[in-house]
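Entry: GNAT family N-acetyltransferase
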Amino acid sequence: MPTNDSAKITPKLHLVNMTAEEAQSISRWTYPAPYDCYRWPEWGEMLREEREFADPHIREAQYQSVHDDSHTLVGYIQLFPLDRAIRIGLGLRPDCCNQGWGAALTRLAIDEALRRQPHAEIDLEVEEWNKRAIRTYEKAGFTITDQYTKRAMHGDVALFCMVYGISR
């Protein structure tokens, strides 16, 4: 039987505590346009400003590294606690993007959010232009519930808020 070499196989993904070395590695990831707006600031700047996963307390409380079966860093998730919700954030290593891994990464984040706070609402924010991510999140069970503009590292951005497990 012929094999399809172009078939995309999603590896088994695992969450582990994010190390400072992994955080620094993530800060160096570069994405092709138009996704290049998701690049993190330079590591030294992140350390000086104690920004996100450069701050050890934030890293420990909110961030997890995602490894494949060979214990290679392939992504990360963020679980940001809100009043009655957990806001998730996701990132895949650039060479792992557009390989069909987004669904597995999203499911991993959902499962961890439910483990941490079983009765919390799970939401995320996604830029309106990012149709690839929106499709992934919709397939995972998220629904667009709100639309607004917010300041981000790369300027003012139009966002959708998407909530898991509700239907419109």
